[in-house]
Amino acid sequence: MLTMALEIAFLMVGLALLFNFYRLIKGPSLPDRILALDTIYINSIAILILFGIYQQSALYFEAALLIAVMGFVGTVALSKYLLRGDIME
Question: What is the mean pLDDT of the chain?
Answer without folding.
Answer: 92
